[in-house]
Specification:
Elements lengths: L43 E4 L5 E4 L6 E3 L2 H9 L6 E4 L9 H8 L18 H5 L5 E4 L14 H6 L3 E4 L17 H14 L2 H22 L5 E6 L9 E3 L4 H8 L2 E3 L8 E3 L2 H7 L3 E6 L5 H17 L7 H4 L3 E5 H4 L6 H12 L6
Parallel strand pairs: 3-4, 3-5, 5-6, 7-9, 7-11, 11-12
Antiparallel strand pairs: 1-2, 8-10
Helix pairs in contact: 5-6, 6-12
Length: 355
Amino acid sequence: MRRGTTPIAAALALAVLCLSGCGGPAGRDSSPAAATDGEPYAKRTVTDCTGHTSTFRAAPARVATVTSSVLEMLLSLGLKDRIAGIQAVAPGAFRPGLERVADGLHKLSGEYKPKSYAPVQKEQLLNVQPDLVVGGWSSNFDAGLGALSQAQLTERDIDSYYAFSTSCEAASKAPVTDFASVYKDLDNYGRIFDVKAESDALVSGMREKVASVRERVGSAEPVSVFGFEYEEGTQTPYAQGNRTLAHAVITQAGGKNIFADLDSTYEKVSWEQVADRNPDAIAIVVYGKDTKAEFDEVVNEAEKFLDDFEPLAGVTAVKERRFIPVTYEEYAVGSVRNADAVAGLARELHPGLVG
């Protein structure tokens, strides 16, 4: 199961001081808010991954984020004071500065627990009186699992946004070869919160970094790559298909995903298939860890497995020990660090071209 939502803790009774001017449904500001540049907030409509539309007449003041990747984007846009509650963030999932900010925010369903995928529950969400709920996994809005669906949120006059860049790529009609979904989310957050200057700057910086890498590796022979998620188990490996951001990272870094022919996100394959496709490099995908030592421990375990696993003994990447550690949260889901993942992978795949 892919990384999704956090565990259920006991619902926390929360006394929330209302922001100035609140009193509308669910604690929302019923009067138009001023934009960040002092201009009045103009009404705007935003469409999300599911085709759900929300019309905003004021920038949301109480936001609940129910998956961590969307929180990273909002914090990167300087919106900490708008966050009323969050899904707890796994240690090491964010850069230290943002992780400290996230740790200080109210956690909707308790502290983070590994391997727990239960969504934030209805009562936990409503306790913080959100005017906008932002998620990225289908489970985030699954009423059958105790969450509130987007339709149920609308019935309560609460807006919602299902991000394009977390799991939406699964529905793509073509291979994902760039960060269009990430840029779309950042642009939409810029519109919703009236911070377009900030979102435009983030998108521009990411585009420039990727373009710089592409310029350097554009004429080089692509290096074949297998993305190995050791923590998901070694009995039967997962293959990252062409409907993932991981595929986009590999492609833009001057690599070739050995399972680029799979029109899916993830599929279980055999080790024989991996060996037959003979990758030149293996990206060891590790979930963010609290310390570098913990991260390195997983990498060392994965490398030992690859070194000792007889079915891969003849694979070029193993014979040459061309193992490249990458962090799941910047490599496989939407993040303001996706361009950094491209640059980092390109340095390993094409060391003579990318410094």
